[in-house]
Every structure is written in structure tokens, then in C-alpha cells.
Design goal:
single chain, 0% strand, elongated
């Protein structure tokens, strides 16, 4: 199954440049979830 049959279509390589947001989004995700949880908790439960 490792033999190259030569019938795969060519996929050009994508750009390796990534934006700042794509690098920072995984780090900011827990902060956003915590902020949303805090705001929803304060709104509905009066904490």
C-alpha cells in the first residue's frame, strides 16, 4: 500500500505564512470561554 501508482492529483503547496490571529487564537480561546461564562453567570445567576 505504500507504492506510488502515479494517479494522485497534484496539490500545490499552500502558503506557509500565517497571520497573527491564527497563532494567537488557540491561546486566547480559554480566556474567551471564561469571559463568556462569567458574563452569562452574572446575567442569569446574579453572581
Amino acid at each position: 500500500m505504500t507504492k506510488n501508482l502515479g494517479n494522485a492529483r497534484y496539490v500545490p503547496p499552500k502558503d506557509t505564512t500565517t497571520s497573527f490571529f491564527s497563532k494567537a487564537a488557540p491561546a486566547l480561546f480559554p480566556l474567551v470561554v471564561a469571559a463568556l461564562g462569567y458574563m452569562i453567570g452574572r446575567q442569569f445567576f446574579g453572581i
